[in-house]
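Revision sheet: structure tokens.
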Amino acid sequence: MRCTLSACADADAFAAFALACARQGADLLLCHPDPCKADAAPADSGAPHVHTAMPPGWTVWPGGEGEGPCCLVGIDPRRELCLGDPASGAHHPDHDPGPHTDAALVAFLGLPPPLGPHPSVRGRDASPLPWRPARADHDMALGFLAYTYGLPRFGIRSAKPRVLPHALLRRYHGVARWNPATGELTLSVHPDGPPDLAARCARILTGAPVPAFSPPGCAALPSSLDRAGYTAGVREVLRRIRKGDTYQCNLSTRFGLHAPGLDPAVLSLHLWRTRPAPFHGLFRVGGRHVVSASPERFLRVDAPGGGPARVLSQPIKGTLAFGPGTPHPAWHPGLPGLLAATPKERAELSMIVDLVRNDISADCAHGSVAVARHCATFRVGGAASGLVQMYSDVTGTLRPDHTCLDLLLSAFPGGSVTGCPKRRTLGIIEAGEPHSREVYCGSLLAVADARAMDASIAIRTGWHDAAAGRFEHCAGSGIVVDSDPESEYEETWAKGANFREVCA
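Predicted:
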């Protein structure tokens, strides 16, 4: 059943509602709160490129019933799938991802069996899979795949300590959806949900105060790779590039904050309100919370009107930082054109676009994969962010005998946060980074049915451990043959500003 909580809830009212729900254990996926106000002014540098508004973010509707971005609140979990949770006890080999965990994901999502590691062996004339569109929001599953979920698929067994599971998915008794374009806030309640759930949510909506954020005064902890360690890592990647092992490799470092008083739910809503990005998310994992403020879409699948399922990936590569302490002290309209005209940044994105085209092609109809808006730019995070980023639209049509999960597993982890060629580059990353990436560079996702899914690349993502009083987050950059080690470290430092500056 679907019941309208409010005909019109503005961003403040929704933020209060979402925070109150999150403090009671709800999970959040939050789109850009006001895409019409994104900076879409054309650059004046004269360089031919497209400068767009910030992509609005999460767009997933059961059965193709609607279009447009939305915010989702998963309330009162009724089922959970948690794979490879370190908190469950001693490590066992069957905790590593593999065919059995793929099968567990399929069973939880109610999809046909996965195609396995070589989906392209099916003929192009294979029969379409039976597909039953989801009926309502309460049929959706929300969750994440950690970066570590994808490693065994490429023959990598990591022994690095982890604190988060390889995968987490939940279904809920209630899913609230907020449409920022109309202000409509609706609640979809599962038939087995508590009879008073709608009434409880209505009380929360009318009684919750607008969230207030006070900087918790977090102190910085040593990073896994300091400046000297990171630049040395870049030089090693450059050596491997010249040797022919890789031609682009994403190297990251992990930053830590002493944050005993941090409220991760308040932090998540504060970032959403003050540093907007297309793909915010908050997930509770035992005594920890994953907080994400990602600008990047990994994969979206939708089938409006029951027609062919469309695939969209929007890989990001190329970053220009502006603000105090950078070569560009303040924003000006020429910055997007400057980024788009930089040969190194364009080459970085072009390499990854080619990889993403390859990653999705086995699950897309022959001849359907295409690229649009190549090297488009947008400004992420509002006035406080100081970043211009570059991306392309990679599109295709999902084969009728494949599901969104087949596509997700074929392309995971995303090429923009690994490099190319992917298999060899993943091994270089594993050897060069002293930390586990955990959920960073994995994917937050919402899955409605076999042909309706949206998934982010979990960059600008961290996790808070309440017991240890720590907040940890990662940032990285793509290394190519003409990369400068010091510049790559500065880019990585700038990408970590969201959490560092807000929590200081």
